[in-house]
């Protein structure tokens, strides 16, 4: 008898891409055997998926001209030196002016001794945000996102970081 409690195959299919990627996902308890099953870094670029609106009212809501939109941001990949500063930038527009929130590996970041966010506004509809980590450690490697949102829309940009080791 196959025990589906231990292993579920999840298939992820991106529209417009001819490949289907199947990843095993463990569910349930399990003790030490397979404790690292399914763990580790998995980076993938996010492909924009166009989803058709079900009715015209949705289109006018989601495609609102005043919705939050990120218009400038840092590069996608960033390699940093241990002990140095990591900096990411996002600039968003929208009416009302959007708020920008920073995430690392899907978890919202909050101010602490080594992490700071600087924000400034331009006009009634633009906000700029700069996130800094100083000094950077090995734990700072990962997947960062800046998310801009207002009452009409949410937009985000993602950045991947990893550290570089100097060899002499």
From TrEMBL:
CDD domains: Ig. GO terms for biological process: homophilic cell adhesion via plasma membrane adhesion molecules. It comes from Sitophilus oryzae (Rice weevil). SUPFAM superfamilies: Immunoglobulin. Keywords: Disulfide bond, Immunoglobulin domain, Membrane, Signal, Transmembrane, Transmembrane helix. Residues 56-167 form the Ig-like domain. Pfam families: I-set. It comes from the Eukaryota. One of its GO terms (cellular component) is plasma membrane. This is Immunoglobulin domain-containing protein oig-4-like. The lineage of its organism: Eukaryota, Metazoa, Ecdysozoa, Arthropoda, Hexapoda. InterPro entries: Cell_Adh-Cytoskel_Orgn (IPR050958), Ig-like_dom (IPR007110), Ig-like_dom_sf (IPR036179), Ig-like_fold (IPR013783), Ig_I-set (IPR013098), Ig_sub (IPR003599), Ig_sub2 (IPR003598). The gene is LOC115886192. The chain crosses the membrane at residues 6-25.
